[in-house]
Design brief:
homodimer; DNA-binding; mainly alpha
Chain lengths: 211, 211
DNA sequence: TCCATATGTAAACAATTGCTGACTTCGATA
DNA sequence: TATCGAAGTCAGCAATTGTTTACATATGGA
């Protein structure tokens, strides 16, 4: 997470090592970014506010100033994930598109921490209220996926499609965990090309219309 | 904290509230059982040695006496899981049998904490040495599964079967997490009967011989 | 019976945790 | 320029953490 080398324009609001001082919004973003990374990778309890502050290159006290508490910072991270997850992929209407969206979510695009976004939904603070947000988000997500796969609440024949969509979700989470957290080979080093085939088989088997 | 909730501990001799005094081996077992439950459900960092001791109905200091440290206790839990995982399912040679074994591992058999056993392999202490044990165990497990599905290291056509087996593993872990830790409905309440169909479809699609 | 030792208990240790308050410093504005 | 508020720093608090130490007590063999 090196600094952007935007040295061309003087007086720009880029977070230059010298110019980023006294930039409250920039500081908030740096904290959010560092927190997402830590929370997603190591979990809530294993992450220290001092870790986050150090990663962000920011004083520890500012976490409490800008986010009230460690838990407040986590909720802010969660909010962003929930928001971005709500915007995205409302267009996926076929199983193939679902596979594409899933791969897109799970692929390493180092610029934004996309795969970490999802991983965050598996991390718990222990507070029931925050956990409920996670649960509802996952519920919504799986129901949208089920809908894209043909689910309609009235149709009894598609009754288990939500469950099946949640199995797809479970697969995605398992892959993310084994890759990012456990670093299991060869899964960890598998490219999206290598993953697309097997993952497509699994998702298709789970979501395609059956007799 | 009443003593009622610790009587669920499986002991060779009955751990009666009166009779269990001065039973070193029984105390070790009570600690191991409580620790597995906590570590698997809440993770390593979120679990307190005092939590474990209270669950086990045992003095905190005995953790260090019998297992040296919190991490030593975790390793002892891990050893047991690795051992039981090594013994089991060396006989699964067809995809159907793999599904059966997976369901057996994931089903709630309250007596022993089978699903928690697997979940433990996702929990990290942060110590690289302990993590390596987890990694190797998962690697072995997935290679055994791939072998059962027809993998041979020489045959290039089965080259991605280990990766596919790890996707099966990922699915299992995801399901366990979403059920036990996140309590996502309807997945959490799904019976093994309801799970067998979808899970069978996914595993078959991942591991069956393809053209 | 008596004592050595295994087992368990209680209290407190040092380190780390999240968090707070008083302080300084910068920058915009009157 | 003087000033006031926002942004950041610093030191330290109170609580919790894993661990250890000193002590109590039960148990079995001499």
């Amino acid at each position: 997470m090196s600094d952007m080398d935007v040295t061309a324009v003087k007086g720009s609001d880029e977070p230059d090592a010298a110019a980023r001082h006294r930039d409250a919004d920039g500081t908030r973003q740096r904290l959010l970014q560092a927190a997402r990374q830590r929370f997603a990778m190591d979990g809530y309890a294993a992450t220290t506010v001092r870790d986050i502050a150090t990663d962000a290159g920011v004083n520890v006290a500012l976490i409490n100033r800008y986010f009230t508490s460690k838990e407040g910072l986590f909720e802010a991270c969660l909010d962003r994930t929930v928001k971005e997850l709500g915007d995205r992929d409302t267009d996926a209407s076929t199983v193939d598109q679902i596979v594409t969206v899933m791969l897109e979510q799970m692929l390493d695009t180092p610029a934004d921490g996309r795969p970490l976004q999802l991983l965050l939904l598996l991390r718990s603070t222990g507070e029931p209220e925050v956990d409920e947000i996670r649960r509802r988000t996952l519920r919504d997500f799986s129901e949208r996926m089920a809908t894209a796969a043909g689910w309609s609440p009235q149709d009894a024949r598609t009754g288990d499609l939500v469950l099946r969509a949640q199995l797809v979700l479970a697969t995605a989470f398992g892959i993310l965990l084994l890759r990012a957290s456990t670093a299991l080979e060869p899964l960890r080093s598998a490219t999206d090309t290598e993953l697309r085939g097997p993952l497509g088989d699994a998702v298709t088997a789970l979501l395609s219309a059956r007799s």
